[in-house]
Automatic annotation (TrEMBL):
<dbReference type="InterPro" id="IPR016032">
    <property type="entry name" value="Sig_transdc_resp-reg_C-effctor"/>
</dbReference>
<feature type="modified residue" description="4-aspartylphosphate">
    <location>
        <position position="52"/>
    </location>
</feature>
<dbReference type="Pfam" id="PF00486">
    <property type="entry name" value="Trans_reg_C"/>
</dbReference>
<dbReference type="InterPro" id="IPR039420">
    <property type="entry name" value="WalR-like"/>
</dbReference>
<feature type="DNA-binding region" description="OmpR/PhoB-type">
    <location>
        <begin position="128"/>
        <end position="225"/>
    </location>
</feature>
<dbReference type="InterPro" id="IPR011006">
    <property type="entry name" value="CheY-like_superfamily"/>
</dbReference>
<protein>
    <submittedName>
        <fullName>Response regulator transcription factor</fullName>
    </submittedName>
</protein>
<keyword id="KW-0238">DNA-binding</keyword>
<dbReference type="Pfam" id="PF00072">
    <property type="entry name" value="Response_reg"/>
</dbReference>
<dbReference type="InterPro" id="IPR001867">
    <property type="entry name" value="OmpR/PhoB-type_DNA-bd"/>
</dbReference>
<feature type="domain" description="OmpR/PhoB-type">
    <location>
        <begin position="128"/>
        <end position="225"/>
    </location>
</feature>
<feature type="domain" description="Response regulatory">
    <location>
        <begin position="3"/>
        <end position="117"/>
    </location>
</feature>
<dbReference type="InterPro" id="IPR001789">
    <property type="entry name" value="Sig_transdc_resp-reg_receiver"/>
</dbReference>
<dbReference type="InterPro" id="IPR036388">
    <property type="entry name" value="WH-like_DNA-bd_sf"/>
</dbReference>
<keyword id="KW-0597">Phosphoprotein</keyword>
């Protein structure tokens, strides 16, 4: 269950968004000030923050800056009545991942939240040394991999390959890039080793549903959830 922190100084609006998110299966918390937001990022540990720009004590862009300065890479979706282009650029420059203007539909906001969560699913958390994607957890400090709560034993090369895919969620990486980042030396053009190790990973990681490692013909490989199409 993803946790979302909803920040707005209008209690009715914060509660409305939080209630809609809970109905969609999210765990939620609310805040009304910048100071409360920074505190809850550390204690509630949200997977995403919906952040109003106009707060009573400090601008939301400054709150985002403080969160980033503190080392958190939690995704931030700004929610504000400020719809000028320079306001949107300022929000994204401050470290935001998306920018939704008021008035808005709850359906659009939830769709934007889901899109940001998918896009940032493999973002590392400096606080615990882990990469996560769907139900896959890569503990870099312990050099362990877990899926659906079960530990998966990987060789050092398999671990390094999976870690590289997880560091680029949703991005197709070529065999050549994988060779450069995982093996770190030239195979003399023999990239068949990549296909071999991808097959090893699939036997272990994709033994659970849904499959996460996908082939893009003539391009490379990508870590993502299956698509409906």
């Amino acid at each position: 269950m993803n946790r979302v922190l909803v920040v707005d100084d209008e209690p009715y609006l914060a509660d409305l968004v939080a209630t809609a998110l809970r109905y969609e299966g999210f765990e939620t918390a609310t805040a009304a000030t910048g100071a409360e937001t920074v505190s809850l990022v550390g204690t509630f540990r949200p997977d995403l923050v919906v952040l109003d720009v106009m707060l009573p004590d400090v601008l939301g862009t400054e709150v985002c800056h403080r969160i980033r300065t503190a080392g958190s890479e939690v995704p931030v979706v700004f929610l504000t009545a400020l719809d000028a282009t320079e306001d949107k650029i300022g929000g994204l420059t401050a470290g935001g991942d998306d920018y939704v203007t008021k008035p808005f539909s709850l359906e659009e906001l939830i769709a934007r939240i889901r899109a940001v969560l998918r896009r940032t699913a493999g973002r590392p958390d400096p606080g615990d040394g882990r990469l996560t994607f769907a139900d896959l957890v890569i503990d870099e400090d312990a050099h362990e991999v877990w899926r659906s709560g079960r530990r998966i034993d990987l060789t050092p090369t398999e671990f390094k390959l999976l870690r590289f895919l997880a560091a680029n969620p949703g991005k197709v990486v070529s065999k050549r890039r994988i060779l450069d980042h995982v093996w770190e030396y030239d195979f003399g053009g023999n990239d068949g080793v990549v296909q071999t190790y991808i097959s090893y990973l699939r036997r272990k990681v994709d033994a659970f549903a849904p499959p996460l490692i996908h082939t893009v013909p003539r391009v490379g490989y990508v870590l993502r959830l299956p698509r409906d199409d």
